[in-house]
């Protein structure tokens, strides 16, 4: 090959390389772009950098969110567009580019329309108000395969429920010796030594941060009637009714244990009462002869009472069976403080009298409860 041929081939090669370079660069200038900024990221999906989840009833209660749509941000990836533009954990994303976000699935579908470099407006609910955040989407970061779908790796918030109410049966055990000694004097069988079954109702609601406030009332009744054995009171019956009552305000802290399964530690503050009603009556009353059939007879009705301020620490387990039904189990200890010594007698007019030599009967004991709970 002659030198002239070598020079010609070299020139052709240089020309080909030059044309290739011009072919690549010219379109970029034609579009008005800086060729140094052309990047393949323009064809990559837009990246937010958030951990998200569907909004729950618990979120609505705790964040005081007034709507039933949107998605909640559980966390923000460090150095992501979301962090740069100010999105925060516990923000509720309501809309993207003016389009309402119904739920997580809808949001994931909406994001398929956006690429890295796109600018979007996001309507966010935060601290009781609505604000709009404008941000530029980035390209997916070079992270491990475990984090490729960061939005789907959001840590799930365990659901502690919204509250409810229901029937409360409770097996209660305490020392009834003083009460049994009194009713035994009247010839009645004693209260069960192993315990009694209280029944009542309770309700509570979620006020935020897993705290539930509500109320409870429970009671027990034991009623017996017998004929007066004294011949001087032939036709008279004696009726005795013992009652035990609890009632007060409850505060509980629920702790999520597993899906549909929560624990709770709580306290009741209120009042309680031992009460014994005694009626002696022949059942014969006449409006026209009240003196003869009431005042000047052996007919009488009084109530003996010992009252307490009560505190009841308790622990509860709740299992959600259906969205509106759960099963609860509870154990607690009741303790009553009596401001005054002894028992009181209350007559039919509401007057009360101290009963001499009456005992300081306690109110304290362990209780167990299992039953349905309507709500969660």
Describe how the helices and strands are arranged.
Blueprint: H1 3-30, E1 50-54, H2 57-63, E2 71-76, H3 81-84, E3 92-96, E4 99-100, H4 104-110, E5 119-126, E6 129-136, E7 163-173, H5 177-185, E8 196-208, E9 211-227, E10 237-258, E11 261-281, H6 290-295, E12 300-322, E13 325-337, E14 344-346, E15 352-354, E16 364-375
Antiparallel strand pairs: 1-2, 2-3, 3-4, 3-5, 5-6, 7-8, 7-16, 8-9, 9-10, 10-11, 11-12, 12-13, 12-14, 13-16, 14-15
Q: What fraction of the residues are assigned to beta strands by DSSP?
A: over 45%
Q: Largest beta sheet, briefly?
A: 8 strands, antiparallel, barrel
In DSSP terms (H or I, runs of 4 or more residues), the helix count works out at 6
Mean of residue pLDDT? 84
Listing every helix as H and every strand as E from the N terminus to the C terminus, the arrangement reads HEHEHEEHEEEHEEEEHEEEEE
- Going across the major beta sheet, what is the strand order? 7-8-9-10-11-12-13-16
| Overall geometric form | rod-shaped
CATH topological fold name of the largest domain: Porin
Rounded to an integer in angstroms, the radius of gyration calculated over CA atoms is 39 Å
Class per helix and strand makeup:
alpha+beta
How many strand units?
Answer: 16
Question: What's the end-to-end separation, in Å?
Answer: 93 Å
- Give the % helix: 10-25%
What is the architecture of the largest domain at the second tier of CATH? Beta Barrel
Q: Could you name the CATH class of the largest domain?
A: Mainly Beta
Stretches with pLDDT under 50, minimum 5 residues:
1-7, 16-42, 142-154
* Tally of structural domains: 2
């Amino acid at each position: 090959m002659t030198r002239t041929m070598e020079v010609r081939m070299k020139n052709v090669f240089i020309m080909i390389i030059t044309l290739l370079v011009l072919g690549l660069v010219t379109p970029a200038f034609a579009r008005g772009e800086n060729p140094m900024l052309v990047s393949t990221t323009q064809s990559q999906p837009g990246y937010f950098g958030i951990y998200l989840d569907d909004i729950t009833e618990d979120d609505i209660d705790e964040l005081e969110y007034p709507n039933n749509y949107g998605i909640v941000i559980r966390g923000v990836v460090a150095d992501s567009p979301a962090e740069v533009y100010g999105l925060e954990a516990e923000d509720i994303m309501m809309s993207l580019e003016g389009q309402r976000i119904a739920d997580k699935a809808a949001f994931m579908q909406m994001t398929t329309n956006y690429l890295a470099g796109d600018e979007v407006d996001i309507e966010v609910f935060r601290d009781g108000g609505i604000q709009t955040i404008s941000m530029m989407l980035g390209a997916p970061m070079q992270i491990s395969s475990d984090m490729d779908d960061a939005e789907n790796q959001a840590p799930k918030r365990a659901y502690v429920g919204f509250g409810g109410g229901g029937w409360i049966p409770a097996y209660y055990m305490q020392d009834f010796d003083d009460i049994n000694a009194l009713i035994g004097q009247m010839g009645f069988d004693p209260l069960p030594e192993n315990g009694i079954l209280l029944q009542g109702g309770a309700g509570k609601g979620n006020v935020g941060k897993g705290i539930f406030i509500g109320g409870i009332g429970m009671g027990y009744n034991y009623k017996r009637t017998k004929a007066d054995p004294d011949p001087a009171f032939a036709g008279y019956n004696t009726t005795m009714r013992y009652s035990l009552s609890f009632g007060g305000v409850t505060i509980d802290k629920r702790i999520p244990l597993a899906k549909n399964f929560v624990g709770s530690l709580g306290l009741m503050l209120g009042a309680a009462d031992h009460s014994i009603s005694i009626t002696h009556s022949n059942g014969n009353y006449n409006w026209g002869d009240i003196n003869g059939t009431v005042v000047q007879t052996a007919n009488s009705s009084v109530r003996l009472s010992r009252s307490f301020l009560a505190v009841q620490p308790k622990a509860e387990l709740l299992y959600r069976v259906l969205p509106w039904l759960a099963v609860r189990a509870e154990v607690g200890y009741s303790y009553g403080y009596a401001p005054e010594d002894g028992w009181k007698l209350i007559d039919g007019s509401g007057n009360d009298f101290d009963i001499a030599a009456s005992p300081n009967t306690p109110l304290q004991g362990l209780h167990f409860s299992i039953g349905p709970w309507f709500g969660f």
